[in-house]
């Protein structure tokens, strides 16, 4: 698995996403799956940066790998515990102006991946995104 480590600040996001895209392409992941995973990683990492840490001196670790026809992207952070698999589905009915704010990022992550797993271990949030090739 290829690992990417970066500071948990918004200015690091473009470089981190480029590194993830490059890692997935080197692993031979097809373009459509790369795009879906890049979007899911963007949402997950942005949420970590905005809501997981209270300090800017924090890191995020991402590793990418392919095994048995499944690509896995593992995202780790030491922020506040948060299990996105437990989040309720957002209300998508009615006008966008009238719906509550939030929840669409997790909804998007669920739609862009085939499997989403979470665990808290060693003081870290560990989110695993999987896409079947």
UniProtKB/TrEMBL annotation:
Domain of life, per lineage: Archaea
Keyword rRNA-binding carried by entry: no
Limits of the Histidine kinase/HSP90-like ATPase domain: 11-130
Presence of the UniProt keyword Nucleotide-binding in the record: yes
Gene Ontology MF annotations: ATP binding; protein serine/threonine kinase activity
Keywords: ATP-binding, Kinase, Nucleotide-binding, Serine/threonine-protein kinase, Transferase
Xref: InterPro entries: Anti-sigma-factor_SerPK (IPR050267), HATPase_C_sf (IPR036890), HATPase_dom (IPR003594)
CDD domains, per database record: HATPase_RsbW-like
The name this protein goes by in its record: ATP-binding protein
């Amino acid at each position: 698995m290829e690992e990417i480590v970066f500071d948990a600040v918004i200015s690091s996001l473009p470089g981190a996403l480029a590194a993830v895209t490059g890692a997935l392409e080197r692993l031979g992941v097809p373009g459509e799956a790369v795009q879906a995973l890049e979007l899911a990683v963007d949402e997950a990492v942005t949420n970590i940066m905005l809501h997981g840490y209270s300090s800017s001196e924090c890191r995020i670790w991402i590793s990418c790998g392919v095994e048995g026809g499944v690509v896995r992207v593992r995202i780790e952070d030491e922020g506040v515990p948060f299990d996105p698999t437990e989040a309720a589905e957002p209300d998508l009915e009615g006008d966008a102006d009238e719906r509550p704010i939030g929840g669409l990022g997790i909804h998007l992550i669920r739609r862009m991946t085939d499997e989403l797993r979470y665990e808290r271990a060693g003081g870290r949030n560990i989110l695993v995104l999987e896409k079947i090739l």
